[in-house]
Each structure stands twice: as structure tokens, then as C-alpha cells.
Amino acid sequence: MRPRLKALLGAACALPGASCVGWQSTLSPQGPHAESLLRLIFAFAIVCALVWILVVAMLAGALMRRRRISREPLASRPREERRLGMLVGAATAATVVVITGLTVLSFVATRGLEASHDDALKLRMRGYQWWWEVTYLDPRPDRIFLTANEIHVPIGRPVEIELSAADVIHSFWVPSLAGKKDLIPGRDNAITFTATRPGVYRGQCAEFCGLQHAHMAFLVIAEPPEAFDGWRRAQLTDASAQTTSEEERGRGVFTQKACAACHTVRGTSASGSLGPDLTHVASRRYIAAGLLESTRGSFAAWIADPETLKPGSNMPNVPLTSDDLRDVSAFMASLK
Ligand SMILES: [Cu+2]
Fold it and tell me: How remote is the CA of residue 125 from the centroid of ligand 1, in Å?
């Protein structure tokens, strides 16, 4: 893309005091895959606009022409018939050329998106109603870990994501980094992208998947490789130790109540897998797929009444005393 245009589109990110948190725009590509898609959008828009202008101009010309229409049948006017025949032929040929050209362009652009890389960071994302399970893959089993609704990626390195769905069709879409790819039950897909600039890019499910489809967002946090390695090391550890008696009691509540049947917190006996892995839940920026910032207050609000905050959500209201609620929220907030 033209550097000037690119600078203009990215300018909102670079304004002093502005941050790119929540940056979610196809018009602000932050990596080569998104850039090639934006070029494709422009190519289509420009060609289609030209064709439209041409058609409208011809129509206007025809409407304004004041010529008597001959009532003679066309067959008796061979010159006129030949001229019209050539005109229709030329229009057909032009249509074929334009459509073939656009098809080739779009083929080339999408093929580039599929290219696989040996040094790619590999992860798996699984869509659930209505959250994203993320698995960081590694040849060494002890370096595999799970998280949810937020992925960290190193800048400059391709990221390959295997996409699968647990229940219905979802769609992975981070407009600033990559195109859309569906997650289909029973048919695994993959998507590749590279982030070139550090930033926080928002993505969301792009295929209507039920009641809370609009609350199925996630973040892609692109950071320098050293920062990414530090994050990854921290994620690989078990849950941090509880420091206050509140947090300590909260862990007891968590492991004894229904929570443990659905959630895993590594380092405790909780090992359920119906809901997001909570080992480092407080290190993520949002809970419930972009619904609430992960503060202690939001944990309490969420645990007290997920059905009101996210109607239809697959986390039930678990009856807790107010002391239990306070302690279990403190425990959640300690899981950095
Ligand atoms: Cu979805």
C-alpha cells in the first residue's frame, strides 16, 4: 500500500496519548496478511467503481441522445446490425476480462494467506458458545498450556492457528491482522498471520452463533519476542500462591464448590474443562470474552450472577454465601 495512505490510516494509533487497545479495523493493517487483503479491497472497489461510472455514463448518453428510432427491422439494416453485434461482443469480452482479472487477484491474495512457515508459532483455538479456548502447542508436552480469550504473539514471527469448534460454527476475525476463517464442528481449519507492530488488536466471532454472539471477543497482544517469552514462561507456571487468608479460603471455596467441575486451576485439585482455564485468569485483560475488565469487582459480579450479565451463558449461577463470594473473588483476582 502507498506509504502515505498507510501512515494516514495508522495515524489514530500513533497520536500522543492514544493507544491501539481495541484497534479493530480492516483499514489499519498491522501485518502483511492484512495489508494484502486491504490491497484486494481497494482493487475491487476501484475496478467496480470504474465499471459503474462507465455504465452510468453510457446510460445517460443513451437517454440524452435525440435520434429518431428507425422502425425498420434490424435484419434489413445489415450495417447497423453488425455495429450493434460488435458492441455487444466487446461489452461481453470486457466483462470476461474484468471478472477473470479480479478472480486471479483474489486467488493470488488468498493463496498468500495459506502459505505455511517452519518457524511459525503454533496454537489451537477452539470456539465455544461464547468464548475461545486457546492452546499453545509445543513439541514438548510439558510446554503446552491453555488459556482463553486472549492470545499473545511475538512480532515479526508468523503465527499459525488451528481452528476448531465445540458446538456450532464460529468465525475467527482480527481485522487488523488477518482475514476471516470459520471454525466448523467436525472440520478443522487453519489461519496464518504475522503482526509487525506491537499493539493490542481486538478480534471477535464473525459468524452468528447464538444468543451471546456479540459477546465473543478476544484480544491479540503483539509484543517484542523477549516480552512474549517472558509471558509464555509465566503462563507455564502453576497458579501463584495465595498470600492472604481471604485468598486461601477462596481457593477452598473454589475447589469444593461446583466451580472445580468446570474450571482448571493448575496447582489445585480443580481440573474441569467445560469452562475457561483460570490458572492465570487475572493476568488477562477481560473476562467472559471481552465483557468485563478483570478486576476483583468484576469477578464478584460475574460469579454472583453470570446469567444476568451474559444471558444464556453456559456458566450457571452457583449459590454462594456473601463471605464465600468475597473470598472466591479475592482468589480469582490473585491468579495473575
Ligand atoms: Cu461465535
Answer: 12
